[in-house]
């Protein structure tokens, strides 16, 4: 099997890197013996056949595409990571077969690190992957191979040594290890599904070399565990083509349309997220996962189906034992950790650094400065910070002992400074010198020993809770806290990296550092506010050149003419009017005006210059089509340097400062999100996009400008599933469900269920878990959750009644499982 693996990798390397067939790849007796057999293969015809398949056969092309996937790369790395594989490669290289070079070429083509040995004519093709192998087999004389094998075994010491190596215990170990690799089993199952008789190849190797392989009683189909194979046996009974045809036939049904639009809506997505955040639901998911079901993969596909973000599985937190004890709680844990801290060494090193390290001296001076104390005081008087601190104390996370250590040892009043952080500058070495004094192994052992303490469990569960995460976000949004973080960062501490690790530790999103916004001077002046800024910018705009170029484009550019016609159309005006009458949009507009961001002057420029009523269309955007050139021609007329200088000169204006601070605030960001969620606004964006404007790119840049998350373009939801402009009622969702149920092989399901209960221990265990009181308790908890019930009711209101599916599962499987999907 190692020979096949290495031969396969070598062949791929030669085929993909070399421009001729199998160049010399070694020297010596063993190489000559191997070349003896290779010479029997009509390589030119074989390659021509393979290339014909690669260009014409869809199934073989799928296999080639698989070779470019991450799974294939990972599988190659796993195979190359097996010790026995390396031992065999060493044997070949030592005996004159230059396998390292071939493997390195393969790895380069595949896109993985190089292999290192120092590890501890015209004709009709048959079709399909199996057909490719069959067509190649026709070109090879097996009689020659058999006679050649016998001849070499009789005459060549090198070849006999080679065969002995293939029969060695090391080769058997390699096969055993290889068949424990999930990715290899997935690959094996995939090519077996394509019709390749892998078992026959394994039988031949067993017959010739005596290497044993696992026995697969039926064509192998890879899943993560034995249960997944049982589940897959059920899904194979479903005629997916019939169901697909039924679903497609219902896509223009008005009730189905409404239901699908709702499932693609942010409202539904938000409900799904709320349900997935329920402890009861997470317990249900973990239970099914532990029962052997690939529930994570299923929920990931559901998320993708409804256009949602990737599904994030719940964490198995603190399940070290089911029986908790009290070892002294968080206080005991902190005391035990403090007991092993080398406080005297810390003190000595601190004094040494104060005498020898200018970077460290500067850092401590900053920490002892009135400016820093002022920042710390501001943080400590913040209600949100105090609330989080109190909740942490309530959960047992009292930081007072740590605070006292820092104050007593370092002689500074620094209640919130981390014990350590790393930064790529001279200070980082000083900080790292302190951390090296800590015996992390001892502390790790202490922490692990406390993981089954009930008080520690509660504290850690709270730190992993959404409630605590929300409090952390509120604290991080405080101007005082952000000033503290910026101060520590500017003092040379890698506080951003530390907070990022804290976020990861508690299962939170990535930490976003605060921005150094508007710190051009500490003394503000009033240069005329936003109005003055806008007036100054307008004064340098080449309005007459704009007008002239506009008229030129209307005479010479069909793309620009079509664009302007769309902007002047009644359809566009209707969309604009809808946006302007939206209360949320008007609220955002008014708040922008209140902080000085009146867009009326810009609106007037567009109306007067272009002769169109276009209050909300951006002045420019870029798009990769003929229109983008026209738009870009306009922007080239703007002297961006002048405008940039004007903007910079206004950055210390107090009114401009307030306006920009508001635009960077969460309040403004939330308003933007509400406006972007409006159907009217989304229709406007889609309209401009369809008109040829790169409105998505422009809005993405606006999001980045204001420090927001990436902009997510709207789905063309109102037209999502519009196969015709006239809707009909084919029976709605109920009709769709009934039609799908009608083609389900329920009797075959029932028969297979009984067969699995009689033959598959994994399936029996799974069903027993589903029928257990523990599972029923979890299901009951989910069904009594208000958020789940709200989502269920909204789904029913949209026509998504799951009762028929529930009845199928109950009647067919004989279990009470109201929330289990019908297709596992």
UniProtKB/TrEMBL annotation:
The keyword Signal applies. It holds the Pfam family Ins_allergen_rp. Keywords: Signal. InterPro entries: Ins_allergen. Residues 1-19 form the signal peptide. It comes from the Eukaryota. This is Protein G12. It comes from Habropoda laboriosa.
